[in-house]
Amino acid sequence: MWKPNAHRKRVYSELLGHMVPLSLTAHTLRCIDKAGGAQLAASLVPPPPPSPAAGLDSYVLNAREAELGTGEGPRLKETLLFVKRLQAQAAALVRPGASADKESAGS
Fold first, then answer.
1. What gap in Å lies between CA 15 and CA 32, rounded to an integer?
2. pTM (two decimals)
3. Alpha-carbon distance 64 to 106, whole Å?
């Protein structure tokens, strides 16, 4: 009988701002690390370490539905997309107000 190499891990999500408990396979953990970026060994000046949080969000948002499975993955992707939409709407609301403040200060 085949059993996947699954682990229950808590992974930080930068978009959500907190740890997300997930059941992940070893392959998925490697993919999350890869999505966060990789350091170049040949570089004279080492780049800053990649944010592990960016790895989770990037992996989930760019993964195909089949890669996310049927349980936690699709729900997490839906939540992350919702949060991104809210952030974009909030940024759109802030921009017009910020330019109006600058105009009134200048006159």
1. 15
2. 0.67
3. 49
Contacts made by residues 33-41, CB under 8 angstroms, sequence distance 24+: 34/59, 35/59, 35/62
> How far is the C-alpha of 71 from the C-alpha of 85, rounded, in Å?
22
Q: What's the pLDDT tens digit per position in 60-70?
A: 888 898 888 88
What value, to the nearest 5°, has the Cα angle with vertex 48 and ends 43 and 50?
A: 110
- State the pairing for strand pair 18-25/6-13: antiparallel
Check if the beta carbon of residue 21 is closer than 8 Å to that of residue 12: no
Tokens representing 98 are: 């910020």
Can you tell me the distance from the alpha carbon of 53 to that of 13, in angstroms, rounded to the nearest whole number?
5
CA atoms 62, 66, 72, 75: torsion sign: positive
Task: Decide: 74 and 30 in contact? Cβ < 8 Å.
Answer: no
